[in-house]
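Table S2 (continued). Query chain:
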Amino acid sequence: MKRITLIGLALALSTALLASMAVAQTAAPATSQSSLGDYARKIRKDPGTAKAKPKVFDNDNLPTDDKLSVIGEKSADNAAGAPGEDKNAAGSNGDDELAKKQAGWKSWQTKLSAQKDQIDLATRELDVLQREYQIRAAAMYADAGNRMRNSAEWDKQDADYKQKIADKQKAVEDAKSKLADMQEEARKDGVPSAMVD
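Corresponding output:
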């Protein structure tokens, strides 16, 4: 009997403890949520209390007809311009300089594109040589009589094909290294990486 009473008493205490913990957990977030809501309402009513935030640009509000400055506003010295300097002349000089830069970039892009085309052509030629060699080797080794009769001629052709393939592989590697050098030189010249790669 004592055992049943002790077990019942332990169950009652644990149930009461769990219930009080559950009440405490549900009551605590309600107070923090209402205080957060009150704070948000206060900020909305009085925007002067929050610090002025800088304007954040995203895809929806990017200017399309004007340039976006990531440096900041012009200082009074830069906005006024140098004494005796014509603002229209400065604008046209800036436009001319920008046009020269873009023309240089286009020139680099054309050179790089031509080099990439050379690499593609050399790679295809190498592939054709390798396939042609494989076909000739398969035909030679498939016919035992032909192999016996023309072994000296085949050895000469085999060496010739292997030399052509090695030369073409070297040409491809040289073209790739030249492209890498050109890309590095273009980067040093200030060409944007989107145009270089």
